[in-house]
Structure formats: structure tokens, C-alpha cells
Amino acid sequence: MTEIATVAAADLGASSGRVMLARVGRDLLDLSELHRFGNEPVRVGGTLHWDVLALYRGVLDGLRAAGRAAPGGLDGIGIDSWAVDYGLLDATGALIGNPVGYRDERTEGVMARVHAQLDPARLYAVTGLQNLPFNTIYQLVAARGTPAAAAAHRMLLMPDLLAYWLTGEQGAELTNASTTGLLDATTGDWSTELITALDLDRDLFAPVRQPGERIGTLRPDVAETTGLKPSVPVLAVGSHDTASAVVGVPADGDRFAYISCGTWSLVGLELPAPVLTEAGRQAGFTNEAGVDGTVRYLRNVMGLWLVQESLRVWSAQGRPDDLAALLDEAARQPAFVSVVDPDDPVFLPPGDMPARIADFCRRTGQPAPASPAALVRCIVESLALAHARTVRRARELADRDVEAVHLVGGGARNELLCQLTADACGLPVVAGPVEATALGNALVQARAIGAIDGSLADLRGLLRRHTPTRRYLPSTDPGPAAWTGLQARLYR
């Protein structure tokens, strides 16, 4: 049994990736960032691709840095990433082109075509998945008939693809596979019914792995490139970044809601079993697999993508794009002037987000934000409102009491968002850790290696002892009635 595990956690988000080094023991939890790299999609021939080779190079560079920072060697490597996107391999195991990004337009209209063939209620009864136009099921149908699809022998989701390049072993980690719309939520395996109905090749789908399983050891060429020992194991973690982030929620007990807040806000509850009701389907809730047999009962909210795209546009225009300064100014703006629905499809693709928000406000009879600070205030209030609406609906649908909301990820740094979320929910918001995803990744590795043991509750106890958080209490000004009125105005 290893007393202290030294592991590398590769955490890939939709806008950046990083490799973190963690040292984990029964009374030790230390995390440091070693290497950060960008992740910007590239449009080629009208299609939006991920530069997956650049991402892989970033992971290799990070692992090389991890080897230098851990002279005693690494005990494990784990990879998590965003969901739904994949690479296709040919019969030799070679990648067939760069993966297409989920914001690409190729899936427009595909969901309606699939639903004309498969009853949406039946899809939900099997998968428990929120119907989003970019889910893997719709991407695969959109690609059907293309030369790439004709040559494909295996589909690997993004973290599984990178793990394959590190080890030579193919598989499909459960938590990410559960986001595809093709995994049976009850059995935890690929749905033969759906794959057959859509005329997809069953061999495309790799065997399902559980979080904590050993995938393999480093290929000799990878060991040489990184300077690591070939015996270093690559371990399956909660490879959907939200699954790792939920492991990294420092909750005490089970009466909590979580918001994993970054480019997306994943808002929901941790449950022992899926909720496959028609009411849940109509409300857009999804049942995704978590670590240790748990279910992430959640709804996707567009998240800080609206802020990120606005900052990108302002930067290109040569205008100030200092988020900290904008948030300070936004906190002094008048409340409840204008709000938007973050989940309106108009906000999904890249583009001129400030112009889209202004147009939404005008279309709904509200003033368009008059300044960048006013627009940031509009976005943050809109997100807080969406968070509260989603938490309340999850509680109703799952019949689960909630005493606190844990907000983790990059959004935990956003004091205005945390306070307004507490106000809108009428519940305490516990903010942090910012690095919940990397911490959850590292904890699952450390337990698999044997440096720690116990349940998710035990892992979270270690988190509470070693990670700082900040508690935001709901304010009485303007009070719950004002938020209720705001919601009625937006979602009427």
C-alpha cells in the first residue's frame, strides 16, 4: 500500500487545458499547477475542429514537467475533459481527421430527424439524457455517410482518445460515455436497442470502464518523450470533467446541490439512482453517471461562456477586457435592468455575444445594456437566476431536500456571481475549491493506488480539511420576491 500518492491530473476544458501535480495521503492533499495551454477550436472548410494534436502535445509537456517536479516518480496519471466530442480511428488505430467541436453547425436539424425515428420519451427512458443538439448520438447521425464514418472502426471520446495514445489501450470510461445519449442509464452499458435502431456499428463502441480502473502503462515512445518510467499507470477517473468536479465538492452529507461553474454551469444533485420521469425529460434534466455508482442529476446552463465570448469580442475591438475590473463595476450597476435566458440557442455558437445579448433584450422589451459593465451585470444576474431555477426544479423532481449549494470551478472566484446565486436560491452558497475537477481526478487516482481508502464521503472529508472555501449567505435586499418577479418576467 502506497502511503502517499504522487499523481498527475490532466484536466482539459473547452477553452484551456492544464496538468496538475497532486500529492495525496490520509492527511495530505496538495495540488499545484505545472503546465497550462490553450484550447481554441479551428474552423477549416466551414467545419469547427478541435486541434487535438496540440492538446496531446500540451499533455505530454505537462507530464514532462510532472516528472521533473516529482523526482521520486509518478504513481499515476488521470485525464478528464469536456463531454460528447470524439475521434474516429481506422482499422490500424490511426485517427481519421481532427475531432469536430460540439459547437459546429453540422448537427442543426439532426435532433428532429432522430426524434422522428425514435420517440424522445423512449430515448429518455433508456438513457435519461437531456436532449441537447450536440450530444454524441446526434453528432454520429450527422456524420453518417461521410468518408470518415465509412472508414471508422472505433469511436473514442476525448479523454479516452488521449489515454489510448498514452497506453495503446482502447476503452470508454463510464461517466463520459453516459453523456453520449447511447448508454443505458440502468445497465451502465451501451444500448444495443438504440445503436441498432440508428443503424450504427456496434463495434464503434469500446468496452465501458469504471472510474478507478487501471487502463494501462505508458507506451515506450511516450515514456521516452516525457522522461517518465514506462511502468507509470494511466488510471480511469471520472473522465467527464463534471464527474471529477462533483467528487471535488467538499460537502458534508447528501443534502446539497452543486454548480460546477466554468464555460458551462452544470447544476444539479448527486443521487443514488436515475430519475427517468417524463416530468424530468420535459424539464430538460439529465442523468449522467458519477463515481461510485452515483448519478449526476443535472441540467446544463450555458454558463460563463457568455462572459468569455464577450471578453473575446471586446479584446478584438481594442476595448478593455479586464474581467476583475468589469465585475467590480458591474457590482455597482443597478439591479434587474435586463436579463436574458442563457440557454437560448442564439448564445451557443461563437460570435458577437454583446450584440446577441443586446438584441435579445430589445426583442423581449428590455433596455439593451449600455456599457460593458452593464452587460456583465446582465449576464451574471441571468446566470444566478438560471442557477436558482434549476436548483429549485431539481429538488422538486427528485424529491430531495437541499440545505446548501456548493459552487466549484472557475466561477467560485466570481464574488458577484456567488452572492447573487445565494440571493436567488435563498440558500447558502459555499464557493470553492476552484480546482475541484483536478482534485476529484487526483482523489480517485489516489484511492485506486491505495494511498487513501473509503467512500465519497471520506474523500470529501479530506477535501474539507485541506481546501479553503467561502460561504455566501442570502441577502434580504432585494429579497426573494424580487427574484421571483424577475423569473416570471424572463420565463413567462
From TrEMBL:
Protein name, per record: Carbohydrate kinase
Record flagged with keyword Protease: no
Domain Carbohydrate kinase FGGY C-terminal: residue ranges: 257-448
Keyword ATP-binding appears in the UniProt entry: yes
Gene3D superfamilies: 3.30.420.40
SUPFAM superfamilies assigned: Actin-like ATPase domain
CDD domains from the UniProt entry: ASKHA_NBD_FGGY_RhaB-like (cd07771)
